[in-house]
Amino acid sequence: MTNIKKKIFSLIVVTALNTTVVTKRTFSADVPLNIQLSNRQELVRGNGAELQSLDPHKIEGMPEWNVNRDIFEGLVIYNLQGDIQPGVAKSWENKDFRIWTFHLRKNIKWSNGDPITAQDFVYSWQRLADPKTASPYESYLQYARIVNIDDIINGKKNPDTLGIKALDECTLEISLAEPVSYLIKILAHPSLSPLPKKVVEKFGDRWTRPKNLVSNGAYTVKDWIINEQIILERNQKYWNNDKTVINKVVYLPISSEISDVNRYRSGNNDMTYNSLPIELFQKLKKKIPEEIHTSPYLCTYYYEINNQRKPFTDIRVRTALKLGLDRDLIINRVKAQGDLAAYSLTPPYTEGAKLNAPEWFGWSQERRNKEGRRLLAAAGFTKEKPLTFNLLYNTSDLHKKLAIAVASIWRKNLGINVQLENKEWKTFLDTRHQGNFDIARAGWCADYNEPTSFLNIMQSNSSNNSAHYKSRIFDELLTQALKIYSEDMRANFYQKAEQQLDEDSAIIPVYHYVSTRLVKPYVGGYTDNLLNNIYVKDLYIKCEN
């Protein structure tokens, strides 16, 4: 063992029947002094739904990102508090926020032992930008303003013209068309992880099957049984593997929050997904308050209007629906878990946001309802001819109960008829992108802590824009915001952009989330943060008393 390793791993370990006593901090999991670690370092997590894919360029939902954070790692990652820290890149610098240079760690390897180089990032980002990949996150590189990304997506230039190049095996240079002072926040997203070119090209669409998958994160995929579980095991080639504690992770695709909690209570699950059942929440607070973790979350629950489908092309109809939704009833009576009523897509506690509530938000619900009924009548919808549409939601106890409540509220407040439509997760996502819906349940959780992480998805050319909203004014406001270095001045443009969304009633904001989940007391290292990013490599299992 080298002197450096001796220094890092200078510890005294006493192994008993099922206990390891650590007398010095040695892990990235930040194990406190004198903690007793269980010899069984395995974690079972509820994960909300079956995954679309394990391919970082083929996914867009939280269940997928949860797994991807464990098996892939980009230039930078988040720490427990939600702050940026080095990942594959050990350091970086920039010139005028336009030319960014990243220096990769030495001797880093893929899980198959091959070296990871700067060229792996070049290949990955070019693949993400390539229209042939059809990634739901291809617009993410537009948010970063990478040179030539617009022309590549529009088919005017080849992906190899993207503003990213390997200066050598350990040095990566990124060129931006415009300065982006917060670029480093954007780069922590799993879609910007490197990919092993020879593996992807050898196996094609089958490259993410467990027997083929090569990754660079703290874990690799051991097995994937559809609709049952995904099993991860430690990646022995990961650059920081010596400081990882948990050896095995099991993800359970449980769409029912009640089933998730039941498994947890029966001891078959160490951590639930990030939402708890409406009907059980108060009981759980009384019975096991120390195991409930509730914290603000950079995430907005809203109803997505298909802006290109009649009669929702009529702003009067969209505005009536926005006004007629009783948010206080939903958050205080139906859900009752501490969520914040929303008037905007961007949560007001987002870093760099200074939002002003629109006038209607200060009205009584009675006044909102009256105005909503007036607008519907003006649009041709009356008691004799009520507005009728389908409300789409994905399989989930929570989303079903909220959809039932919302349909009832709209019926009472506006006299409209709502028919509920349920689809499983993958079909639900496809249906929204294809525009085959009237109104759909939606949620957007920040990819990074900055208002553009929300606002960008509503741009006319965004691949995330499943509301199919088009506004030249809105797009121009975000373009202008990019040109401003001052955070305070940018905040003014963000406020105007939110105001434009509200004036157009492009969506129906409902509430800004709190994250609510159950975590066993023996799971160490769990820390609440606004982005709700959890890396299993930061966790550990304590010996139960």
What does this structure look like?
This protein is of the alpha+beta class and 545 residues long. Helices cover 29% and strands 21% of the residues. The protein has 17 helices and 21 strands. A six-stranded mixed sheet has the order 15-19-14-18-16-17. It has a four-stranded mixed sheet with strand order 4-13-12-11, covered by helices on one side. The longest helix is centred in the last third of the chain and has 18 residues, at 397-414.
The low-confidence runs, each spanning 5 or more residues with pLDDT under 50, are 1-27
- For the biggest β-sheet, the strand order reads 15-19-14-18-16-17
Portion of residues within helices: 25-40%
Classification by helices and strands:
alpha+beta
Shape: globular
> Which whole number gives the mean pLDDT?
92
**DSSP strand count:** 21
**Rg on CA atoms, Å:** 24 Å
Give the number of helices.
17
Could you give the topology of this structure?
Blueprint (H helix, E strand, L loop, with lengths): L2 H6 L4 E3 L3 E4 L13 E3 L3 E5 L15 H10 L4 E3 L5 E3 L2 E7 L3 E6 L13 H12 L10 H4 L5 H5 L10 E5 L2 E5 L7 H4 L10 H7 L15 E7 L3 E6 L13 E5 L4 H9 L15 H7 L4 E14 L9 H10 L2 H9 L4 E2 L23 H14 L9 E7 L2 H18 L2 E7 L1 H10 L4 E7 L6 H4 L16 H11 L4 H18 L2 E12 L4 E2 L15 E2 L4
Helix pairs in contact: 10-12, 16-17
Question: Main traits of this protein?
Answer:
545 residues, alpha+beta, 6-stranded mixed beta sheet, 4-stranded mixed beta sheet, globular, disordered N terminus
Brief synopsis:
With 545 residues, the protein is α+β, with helices and mostly antiparallel strands. The protein is built from 17 helices and 21 strands.
